């Protein structure tokens, strides 16, 4: 067949467009956008927590906690009276949840069936990160301004210990098999190790080359911690001795990390960049970058559904504050949250 010059140029152009459009879905990586879940109410949010057995996600939002059904991907309830809530931990066998209410220095103990608050426990200043330790059925509230952890019995709310910490605590994880809790000390560039029996800090580990880690996730089988660091790096650390083994670059503004034991993917959600970095633990000493998933500005916190492998991120739309809003002679203030714009973004693995 004979081609004219114009036909040849058209054919080349169409082929080039095909190269640009078709393979990109496959080249982008394993995760893609599924849907957006609108959440009523003003303000932003913080932590997300998955209850895989009950098929729920709990999303902290302003001064309440929103409950999302994982099968319907829709809001099905809310927990109120949680002033300045940061995090939410669950004790599935007790059918209880625990919210860290930063503005009132308390933790709410919640009935997960009725979503009603049973009673509250006094903590240190500004409880932020929170987790449930199942072996002793205790709750650890990490007090951001108090530089401490308040430990109390999940059934009774009785405080059993207040653990001094060397700086500002952030995310923490528990390894019940070895009786340890690991907690990021953001302003000291350290991870502290807490013995769950003695309620004492038994080790302090530097995270260099990482700095100011916020997010944390655990691969319990291979004894690996994943730390989301402020200097745009995800660090992989040996949880038996604190040795930093590997790292990968991530975006700006990281806050949360998650690990999927089935896929061996480690996630870091980066709110300033509007991305999630996805890396694979290719070997116990090797972390490989898999995908930089575009999400939305401000989507800094995240949770994972281990059944479907979907990830859920919370964010609100913002508008930049004007210099006038910051006062005469002052620099431009923080971005303002647009009322009614809070939502949860859902991403799934391609099949």
Report on this structure.
This protein is mostly beta strands and 351 residues long. 6% of the residues lie in helices and 53% in strands. It contains two helices and 30 strands. The strands form eight sheets. A four-stranded antiparallel sheet has the order 1-30-27-26, with no helix packed on it. It has a four-stranded antiparallel sheet with strand order 2-3-4-5, with no helix packed on it. A four-stranded antiparallel sheet has the order 6-7-8-9, with no helix packed on it. The longest helix has 17 residues, at 5-21.
Strand order of the largest sheet: 1-30-27-26
Query: For the terminal residues, how far apart are their CA atoms?
Result: 40 Å
Tell me the Rg in angstroms: 22 Å
Low-confidence spans:
1-27, 321-332
- Count of DSSP E strands? 30
Q: What global shape is seen?
A: globular
Largest sheet: 4 strands, antiparallel
Q: Average pLDDT, to the nearest integer?
A: 90
